[in-house]
Amino acid sequence: MSDYSVETQIFPVDPNQPDPQIIIRAAEVLRDQGLVAFPTETVYGLGANALDETAVSRIFAAKQRPFYDPLIVHIAHKTDIDFVAKDIPEIAFTLGENFWPGPLTLVLKRHERVAPNVSAGLGTVAVRMPNHSIPLDLIRAAGVPVAAPSANLFTRPSPTSAQHVLDDLGGHVDIILDGGPCPIGLESTVLDLTSDHPTILRPGGAPAEALKEIIPDLVLPEDKPMRDNATAKPSPGMMLKHYSPKARFLLFKGSSATAVDQIREIARELISQGYKIGLMVTDEDHLQFFGLRAEIERLGSQDDLPGIGQILFARMRSLDKKGVDFILMRSLPNEGLGLAIGDRLFKAAEQQVIDLDSMKDLSDISEIFS
Predict the structure, then answer these.
(1) Which residues pair with 190 in a beta bridge?
(2) Rounded Cα distance, 31 and 138, in Å
(3) What pTM was estimated for this model as a whole?
(4) Do 190 and 288 fall within a single domain?
(5) Is the same domain home to 296 and 160?
């Protein structure tokens, strides 16, 4: 895969009233096969003209992303769904009326005008309409649908600020539109409408509970490890390792009565071996790690899952910048937005969860961090 290198320009943009001149300049870059990073309500995206195969290939080059991992096509009007997809089922229009603009991506049959490398050569296409004025204005000004995965290096935590984009892709994206932090902080829910039953391929910002009100027979993602291979995926976010910090990420589950004590002892054991440790903890657990020689990032209250989702990736990146070797975190409730948070943590941990309730002593996990 050839590299895509350019001089990156950053433009601050008011998300409530984007400067038309900046938007027009960025739109010209898109029409000229360049790359533009922009905020959405979920995470920052790395955009290219979805109709131009050369432009799309530059996304893969900049992110160092394999070509078998598909991209999402962003549109600016609900009616544009007909431009990028075909043989669209009626349920897609119903969902669009209820969830667009918003964090829901629909997998449909791909229209031939969309570049095939957007969809890893498959006959499907993932489509969404973001709920953010900057990408909507940009897509309208460019006059083309915009293919855009998250604006980060492949497998790394998704970017929720312009600085995150610059850290990962500086010199590999033409323009970064800095619209401040992303309100949700987690990627969109991806819903496959091409199978016999509508199926969530990736949980995200649109809760499954809300989708079930429209689709009673909605199929949830299977709660089991996936095999990672070099075959085309129907949706982004389905790789074995994804959303991962540079540090080794250890995810724990267990009863609240014992879990924190066990995690603290595991952290002490790692520290005694000379490792630098990072912890991502809720406000409820924070004081129980007081005095531990570790870098601690607070996530907020365990009852505020939207607040945790908004800062989750930023906290991972912060601990990476502090140079920790391991990041330890306890799992959160797996309901509502917690389903999406759990999915990101599971993949950040390379689909390995340490069950504290089944541990007898520290030797049970010694092989994990030896």
Answers:
(1) 105, 202
(2) 11
(3) 0.92
(4) no
(5) no
